[in-house]
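Hey,
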Amino acid sequence: MGEALKREIDGIDDYQLVASPLSRTRKTAEIVCEFIGHCHDKITLDNRLMEISWGEWEGFTRPEIEARWPGIYDRRRENKWEFCPPSGESYALLSERVGDWLKSIKEKDKLIVVTHGAAGRAIRGVYGRMPPGAAIGLGEPQDAFFLLSGGKITEIPVDAGEN
């Protein structure tokens, strides 16, 4: 990913890395820094980029959740956008949180953002002004990143340009 970013972004030295403070994304941001020549201590951590919170569901498998909260997945399927797991967060709330982050940046800001699957989908949904719930169905490719610029969202495969 770091190699692809370096290849695809002109003037990468002018970009600031921003990441969720959760360990997985911090580590990913550090690896990206190594490839693009940035210092780890220049990574900005922002709680608004954290993954969706599954609340009391964290760490449980689907069968374990069904056993503890019978029928809860049926309720979730009825309105996945607004459904909140116990003490958790809905996709609507996640979108508000990342939307707040998006409002805090300017179009001219040059950022490389490292976040999580659902948070990344929510960012694209808010940035792309998609209707409520549309972002839930967006992909979470592990072999691509997204350029958000000028109101457009472009998926860039990691292997682009390699022969």
